[in-house]
Design brief:
Layout: E1 2-6, E2 13-17, E3 23-26, E4 32-35, E5 47-49, H1 65-88, H2 95-120
Length: 132
Amino acid sequence: MYLVKKCPACARMVRFPIDRGAIRVTCACGNSFLADPDDTALYEGARFDLASPGPKKKRSNNMPPGKTLRTLVDRGVRRGYDLAYRFQNFFLLPTREQIKLAAGVLLFLGALFLLCYLVCAPGPCAISDGAV
């Protein structure tokens, strides 16, 4: 997850990760400042950028089959960490992101409940009233 904040010296927008702990951020103007995610003053006047970290790489056609599976696993693990981070920092997210996350959880729980109901619900009775 990234945070976008104005540089204190030149007011340019600087984008930096906040899931790596306290880091030193350097602006294009040369000014650097300490970005500590535990400091609440860091979030004043800033916005979250939940987009992917950068441009996507082109996939070559000669990639071995094992590499594709590894790429999918890595992507799944990365998304899992991102989701866990969003849950941990739910109240710091913008309202729109909070609503999307809550709706996703409710949709998942509803689907899980429906699946449990369909699997565990009693079906039509196979035994009749004694007539063979």
